Amino acid sequence: MNNKVRRILLLLSALLLISATGASLNPYEAYIDKYCSLAVEHQEEYGIPASITLAQGLLESGAGRSTLATQGNNHFGIKCHKEWKGETMLRSDDAPDECFRVYNTAEESFRDHSLFLRRGRYLPLFDLEITDYQGWAKGLRKCGYATDPNYAARLITIIERYSLYTYDIPGGYNPEETAAFIHSMLVSSHPVRKARGLHYVVATPGDTYSSIAKEFNMKPQKLMSYNDSEKDREIKAWEEVYLEEKREEAPDGIGSVTIGEGESIHSISQRFGIRMEVIKKLNPKVKDRPGTVLKLR
């Protein structure tokens, strides 16, 4: 069965489930529905797993809702670099007012992303199996695609949350994988991950501190205190939720960091596993807004 038929069957299965449950696509599911065919086409043409392309697009663009995506059609956070001759826009990321590429369409962004990953520094990734999404996610982080120390964990969480690995399967439709895809729309679990000796999970859309606390048989107040939250609330999608007290020092080699677009002091605290009171003590007068440089030591 060819890929086109496979994609149609996947979509029909999902739509039947949505109709039966009365549910509607959330922004992340709608993004997958919109761009899955393009991601599969690029997998066939460039050798990049469709799951990786979709997960990076979902994460980097906030399911197509970031300023870079809505105003610049940039779905992958690709910066200008010396070779870029097209339009640009400035946004705060690893440093204030960094230069990012602007595209005419989202399709141009997807193609440029595929070409970007065919560059020399990422070529070792193409020695991996097309279905090894975990290896690809870890390899992207190792090759320097993002400075976020937990970037691979976020990508893996997104792929497993929405069973994006379904789109990587060579040779066509697989009933068991489709069943997993449907099941993932109904069931959400949180694999425990570990970084710098700290155990954490990655929040998915709709999670709250009380829902995660219930899953791990914890008191919500205790989980909230670990994560510097004064009230139970919906957690930012793909943000770390620590299951123990965060550290009082930054990771080795990190002395400062810039609050990026859509970030805050709290999200920086979560990204690096540092207690909020420590960051605030080091930065007593800074404003909590994009472009602000925070001292972490």
Can you give a write-up of this model?
The protein has 297 residues and is mainly alpha-helical. It has 2 domains: 3-67 and 106-184, Orthogonal Bundle (Lysozyme); 193-295, no CATH class. It has 12 helices and 7 strands. The strands form 3 sheets. Strands 3-4-5 form a 3-stranded antiparallel β-sheet. Strands 1-2 form a two-stranded antiparallel sheet. The protein has a two-stranded antiparallel ribbon with strand order 6-7. Strand 1 and strand 2 form a beta hairpin. The longest helix is centred in the first third of the chain and has 20 residues, at 27-46. The protein is globular, with a radius of gyration of 20 Å. Residues 16-22 and 181-187 have low confidence and may be disordered.
- Helix tally? 12
> CATH first level of the largest domain: which class?
Mainly Alpha
Radius of gyration: 20 Å
What's the story with the biggest beta sheet? 3 strands, antiparallel
CATH architecture heading of the largest domain: Orthogonal Bundle
Strand order, largest beta sheet = 3-4-5
Return the string of H and E elements. HHHHEEHHHHEEHHEEHHE
Shape, per Cα inertia axes: globular
Strand content bin: 5-15%
Main structural class = mainly alpha
How many strand segments? 7
Helical proportion?
Answer: 40-55%
Unreliable residue stretches: 16-22, 181-187
Number of folding domains?
2
Q: Which topology of the largest domain does CATH recognise?
A: Lysozyme
Task: Please report the distance between the alpha carbons of the first and last residues.
Answer: 56 Å
Mean pLDDT metric: 87
